C-alpha cells in the first residue's frame, strides 16, 4: 500500500504533543479527517491565531496578548513578593487557591542537564533582571518536587545568595484530607521534617 505523505506529515505534527505517540497521532489524524473536519479547521485556525497574537509578558514570562500581562499590571497585587514557577499551568493552579496575591515569574521549564536544558534555557537572566529592577522582598520557589525541580530551586537560591531578599520554598507534606495510613513514607517523612508550631 502506497504511503500518503500528507497524512504522514499530519501524524508527525501531532506527535509533538505530550503523551501522543505514533498510534495515538494516527488515531487523532483519522478522527480529524473522517469525523470532524470542521473541528480540525477550527483547531488549525485557533493554533494559528494563538501563535500570531500571544507573546511572553516582558516581566513575568507568562503568555499575554499585550507586552505586560494582566497580573503584572494589576494594582491589587503584592509587589514585594514573587513566586517562581516552572510552567504557566503552575501559575493557574496557584491562582485557583486564592491564597497568593503576589507577582510571578515563569521559567518555562526546569534545569535538566540530561535533556540538554541549562540555565540559559529557562530565562534565568530575565528573572535576575526582574528581581533587580523591583522592590521584591521575598522570593517563593514553587518548582516541582522532582529531582530537576529541586535542582532548579537550589540553583536559583544560589543565584540570589548575595542579594538582600528572603528566599522561601513551598512546603511539602500531607495533602488536605489525607490520612496518614495511606500516605507514602517519603511524603510522611517530609511532613515531619517541615512541621511547624501551632
Q: Can you offer a commentary on this structure?
A:
- Helix 7 links the parallel strand 5 (138-141) and strand 6 (166-169).
- This protein is an alpha/beta fold and 198 residues long.
- The protein folds into two domains: 5-53, Helicase, Ruva Protein, domain 3 (Orthogonal Bundle), CATH 1.10.8; 66-169, Dna Topoisomerase Vi A Subunit, Chain: A, domain 2, CATH 3.40.1360.
- It has eight helices and six strands.
- The strands form two sheets. Strands 4-3-5-6 form a four-stranded parallel beta sheet.
- The protein starts with a helix and ends in a 5-residue tail after the last helix.
- Helix content is 43%, strand content 13%.
- The chain is globular and about 65 Å long.
- The protein has helices at residues 5-14, 22-35, 37-53, 70-73, 88-97, 124-132, 147-159, 185-193; strands spanning 55-56, 63-64, 78-85, 102-106, 138-141, 166-169.
- Helix 1 crosses helix 2 and helix 2 (22-35) packs across helix 3 (37-53).
- The model has no long low-confidence stretch (mean pLDDT 90).
